[in-house]
Amino acid sequence: MDILRISAFSDGETGGNPAGVHLSEELPSDAQMQAIAAEVGYSETAFAKPIAQGWRVRYFSPESEVPFCGHATIALGAALSMQHGAGVYSLQLNDASITVESAMQNGKVQIALQSPSTSSTVVSSELLNEVLNLFAYTPKDLNPDMPPALVNAGANHLIIGLNSRAALSAMHYDLAAGRAFMNKQGLVTVMFVSVEGNQRFHSRNAFASGGVLEDPATGAATAAFAGYLRDLRWPHGGDISIVQGEDMGSRSLIRAEFTHEKGSSIRVSGSTRMIETG
């Protein structure tokens, strides 16, 4: 079975987040897709088949199916572009319909997705205490201008704003405890963020729910974070960039563009590179 291996949100010819992509006329069974994702070993593998409205897509981590994955969608966009040419492709997910497109920008192929709608809600004090204890942070580590929030842009994430890049670098936790916490709360990732400027951020994403300690690039969380900034009335200017994966040695660059319309789709884009195997 042919699996394309593509790194999404790469920094030139390095970095990014690897994803598997499987294109076929029919999707394998659920058990087969789960087994393939576990064998590939990346944080997600996207499975897609052609349908009348575009492509039916499902995403599997090594341990479970997830409703939406940004970096695997970017990788899928690159795969579709290679096999079917540049353009806009409609994707039918389990719970939403989105698009992914490819285009030339500054001499390089850029892949962009349009996320599902966004939402954000405040975090209870009980939940905040639990996550701070899990990751060995204290209230003094938090950014008072970026209150913790539960966010969604096709999948549930928890946003924790930290007050320094050093605090972000210190992020650590026990994988088993993190998995239990995220599964109990219905979270795909916990996203920690430090602010470099109003439109530039650094992030780390714990992905224990999928059996992965940390993701080097997380497009779905970026979309949800952009929606959160909009709800927060942060001076985002409609365009933000995120640097992720530096502390893992896999620097990734993610861009998000969005309007002021509450809940509307986020455009998330980045570069890709093929991963050589064998």
**How many helices?**
6
What is the assigned CATH homologous superfamily of the largest domain?
A: Diaminopimelate Epimerase, Chain A, domain 1
Strand content: 35-45%
What is the distance, rounded to the nearest whole angstrom, between the alpha carbons of the first and last residues?
Answer: 15 Å
Question: What is the class of the largest domain in the CATH system?
Answer: Alpha Beta
- CA-atom Rg in angstroms: 17 Å
CATH fold annotation of the largest domain: Diaminopimelate Epimerase, Chain A, domain 1
Output the structural class.
Answer: alpha+beta
What is the CATH architecture annotation of the largest domain?
A: Roll
How do the strands and helices of this protein lay out in sequence?
Layout: E1 4-10, E2 17-23, H1 30-40, E3 45-51, E4 54-60, E5 65-66, H2 70-84, E6 88-92, E7 97-105, E8 108-114, E9 119-122, H3 125-134, E10 149-152, E11 156-161, H4 165-169, H5 175-185, E12 189-197, E13 200-207, E14 212-215, H6 219-232, E15 239-244, E16 252-257, E17 267-274
Parallel strand pairs: 2-3, 4-6, 11-12, 13-15
Antiparallel strand pairs: 1-2, 1-17, 3-4, 4-5, 6-7, 7-8, 8-17, 9-10, 10-11, 12-13, 13-14, 15-16, 16-17
Helix pairs in contact: 2-6
